[in-house]
Each structure stands twice: as C-alpha cells, then as structure tokens.
Amino acid sequence: MKTLNSYIKQIINETGSRISFYEFMNHALYTPGLGYYSAGSRKFGVEGDFITAPEISPLFSHCIARQCQQILAAIEENGIILEFGAGSGIMAADILQELENLDSLPKKYLILEISADLQQRQRATLEKHVPHLIDRIEWLQQLPETKLQGVILANEVLDAMPVHRFRLDEQDVSEFYVSIEESEFKWQILPTENEELREAVEKLRPNLPVGYISEINLALPAWIQSLPLATGLILLIDYGFPNNEYYHPQRNEGTLMCHYRHQTHDNPLINVGLQDITAHVNFTAIADAAIAANLKVASYTNQANFLLAAGLAPNIDPDDTKAYLQQAQQIKTLVLPSEMGELFKVMALTANFDSPLLGFKYAR
Ligand SMILES: C[S@@+](CC[C@H](N)C(=O)[O-])C[C@H]1O[C@@H](n2cnc3c(N)ncnc32)[C@H](O)[C@@H]1O
Fold first, then answer.
1. Which of 236, 211, 197, 205 is nearest to 345 (CA)?
2. How many CA atoms lie within 13 A of 229 on its CB side?
3. Which range of residues forms the domain containing residue 227?
4. Which residues have C-beta atoms less than 6 Å from ligand 1?
5. pTM (two decimals)
6. What is the rounded distance in angstroms from the CA atom of residue 240 to the CA atom of residue 238?
7. What is the CATH number of the domain that holds 259?
8. Phi and psi (nearest 5°) for 338?
9. Number of domains in the chain
C-alpha cells in the first residue's frame, strides 16, 4: 500500500524538484485515504492529538445552539443549519439535542465535510446520540446551489485550511517550498513564482522588518464569497487575531503549529499524515472578505465573552461533587484567558438580519 510520504515524494518528483508548502499542507492533511484528516486515525479527544471545544463539554455546543435558536426563531419554519468540517460529529449532536429541548429544531442540519472518513464517523456519532433526528441530517458533497436561510457554522475549520508560508526579503518576497534531500522532506526558500502571494505580502511590507516569516490563507476570500447565505448568520470560531496582532513585527516566525499526541511543535515536515498542521486565523482578512461578499460584519468577540453571553453555566447537581467539579474544570478550560477564552475568537457575519445577537452582548 502506498504511504503518504511516498505519494507526496512522487508528486514532488513528477512536478520538478519541489512543491509549495501550500500544496504540501494540502496533501498532508487531505489526500483521500492517506491525509491526516482523510485517513482513519483518532485525531480528536484525549486519545487523539488535540481537543476542540465541543469535545471538552456539551455546554459549548449548547451555547452555539442558543445563538442558532435566535436566528431560527426569526426565520420560522424554513431555518437550516449548515456546519462545515464537523469533526467527530459531537457538536452537531449536542446542538440538535439542545435545539430539541428548546423546541426550535431546524428543518435540516446539513454537514459539508471534505474527509470521507470523518463523514462516516459523524454519521456514527449522530446515529448514536440523536437517532430520532437522523432524517433531518444530510451530508453534502458540495455547496448547495440555492442560498439558505438560517445559520452557517465552522468551529476550528479555517485553521485547518492550507496556507502559503512566506518570507519578506529586502527586494522581493520568498516562498517556502518543500523538496526532498536524502529521502527526507526539506525546506527550500526561494523567490515566489506566485504573483498573488507577492502582491499580498508586499501590502504588509510597510509594517514588517526584512526577514519576517509568516503565513497567509489566500483561499479565504473565495471561501467566504462561496458561503450560501440568503438570510441569517455565519458564525466562525477559531484561534487567531486581527491583522495588526497577526502580522505583529515580533511574531516573526509565523503561527504554523503541529499537533501530535497532545504535543505541539513547529515542524510540519515530520510525522507526515500522522499530525495535524494548522495556522492561526486572520480575522481582519475574514472581515474584509465578508464586506467584499456583501455580508455584514455584525460582531466579533472572544470565546469567553461569547459563551458567557450565550448562557454558559453548570447544569449538574452540586451534590454530585465529582461530576460537578469535572464540569467546573471544563468551563474553566473554555473561558479562562490562559486557556481558550482569549485566544479563540467568534466572528458573526450576517445577511438580512439586523437584530442584536445573543452571544455578542459583551462584545467590546
Ligand atoms: C480541527 S478539525 C475541527 C472539527 C470540529 N469542527 C471540532 O470543532 O471538533 C477541522 C475539520 O474541518 C474539516 N475541513 C477542513 N477544511 C474543510 C473545508 N474546506 N470544507 C469542509 N470541511 C473542512 C476537517 O476535515 C475537519 O473535520
């Protein structure tokens, strides 16, 4: 059986002596059957490589559900939820359960997931947790043709999109490529042949020192433009910063990070296919792309403010001391500034929906 290493090496050999890091990241994460997200490894949770907010506690998804309810209630019968990159499927299950409790189920819960393996895992999770709602859930292989009314969700999806890695040189912009040396993947940093990348990085030049290294998601504007929303809310949750913090002169090695068995490091050229590769999200770039796509940038806050505004609170009997303390610990992980509370941000984009949003009442 072909391994991911030999598959990528073959591509490098066939296309010349190198590929861009963008292509490398794309192959490493998403090659069908072999990539990190496309093969069968555990990934999420204590036994995997990293843990996301919906895996920490269902209370996270209950808060998202309450934000969805506000939109679904305004739209009445036809409200739809579309979730991108649904991971293990647990967020979808917990959102549906909470919306059922609130008597606000969407007409359909759509999932767009690029990994066939994760699609199967999501189905198994949803069949186990919400078997009676399975008929409302549909996996899409591509974006719907008509725009929907309702909510579009993406939790920790944008950080998993392939990025270009660049270095700002005195006269030019260099790009990180990946080549093979003595059978190992090795960096090659060469003047970029990608005009779009050169132009985007040149715009950053006035604020950055020569030699500055970082990443950029050039596919983001097209992704935002493609979101099929007629009326309602797009809720994007991820770790990241606005432009001035993202491209801060002191953040001169970028934000690329790999997750392997709960260890983080910055070398994407090892453990290929076995580790997650991510880059932080530039929320200013999302806002700019949204405005260009005729969406309204309705609000922006950090995860702690969002969850507290959306009613995050323990729901376990304090007499059950062990379970209560466990849940208190989970809440701390979600909201403490030293954990996920400050680094993770929530951005709300809207179309034809102007009421103040429940989860953003503490947004500054
Ligand atoms: C870090 S995981 C997060 C999973 C889940 N949302 C959670 O919070 O646990 C990233 C997810 O996004 C999916 N993904 C990445 N790019 C995508 C895209 N362009 N469209 C749809 N899904 C995507 C991955 O396959 C994976 O399910």
1. 236
2. 29
3. 4-360
4. 37, 44, 52, 54-55, 84-87, 91, 112-115, 118, 155-157, 160-161
5. 0.97
6. 6
7. 3.40.50.12710
8. -80, -10
9. 1
